[in-house]
Amino acid sequence: MQGEKLTWEEMYASLCERHTKEVQDKLLQGKVAIAGLGGLGSNIAVALARAGVGTLHLIDFDVVDISNLNRQQYRIRDIGRKKTEALAQIIRDINPFVQLKLDCVRVEADNVSELFREEDIVCEAFDQAKEKAMLVDAFFSSFKEEKILLSGSGMAGYHSSNAIKTRQLNKRFYLCGDGVNGLESGQSLMAPRVSICAGHEANMVIRLLLGENEV
Questions:
Q1: Torsion-angle region of 214 (φ positive above 0: left; ψ -120 to 50: alpha; else: beta)
Q2: Which helix (H) or strand (E) segment is 165 a member of?
Q3: Is 4's pLDDT higher than 70?
């Protein structure tokens, strides 16, 4: 089979074979926003695309830099490109049938309600604690309905993989990470632990889309 000739029917059948039709049909209905397309967000997006989640909203104002290559999904040839566009191409090379919405903007408190109005699930994937707190505050101020936010906190360094966990803080807020080792602790971000944390967020997204609310 030539990859460039892969049809929707073939991709769908393949995903159904692995996930079951019941599961895959639910994932196809999913609409997920990812705010920040760095180490955390780019890995979340690729995991959800591979799982066949129907619609992904990719949000980031930045461009790919050489310093991103140690932990993010980008390639050398992506340096200088907008992260939204580079990640969209990577996803299309994996699963061209995912519906993508791209916003090359900085997330601010005053645009949260507009940016995330269409998605039921939002993944916060920023590096800086201040930006994370801003989005959390703005999200819960803007949305009173059943939209759900997932956030990451504590994935820096090369500490134990087992310290990274998913916690449910309330019925609409999940937090993934070890809760301690962030950039503010003076440690660098490395691919293994960042990817583990991204896996926690992506897996919780899938659970939520399938009606599983418990961590």
A1: beta
A2: strand 165-170
A3: no
Strand order, beta sheet including 173-177: 99-103, 55-59, 31-35, 121-124, 148-152, 173-177, 165-170
The Cα–Cα gap between 34 and 38 comes to: 10
Q: Which fold has domain 26-209?
A: Rossmann fold (3.40.50)
Contact 27, 211 (CB under 8 A): no
- Model confidence over 55-114: pLDDT tens digits? 999 999 999 999 999 999 999 999 999 999 999 999 999 999 999 999 999 999 999 999
Nearest to 135 by CA among 155, 150, 146: 150
The amino acid at residue 79 is I
Q: What is the β-pairing status of strands 165-170 and 173-177?
A: antiparallel
Which helix (H) or strand (E) covers residue 112, if one does? helix 112-115
Compute the CA torsion angle 48, 66, 158, 37 (nearest 10 deg): -30
Q: Is 205 in contact with 214 (CB distance < 8 Å)?
A: no
Q: Which residue has the tokens 């939520």?
A: 208
> For all residues of the chain together, what is the average pLDDT?
96
The single-letter code of the amino acid at 179 is G
Find the helix packing angle between 39-51 and 83-94, rounded to 10°.
Answer: 30
Contacts of 10 (CB under 8 A, 6+ apart): 1
Q: What is the mean pLDDT of residues 15-25?
A: 98
* Structure token digits, residue 88: 């969209």
Write out pLDDT tens, residues 45-72.
999 999 999 999 999 999 999 999 999 9
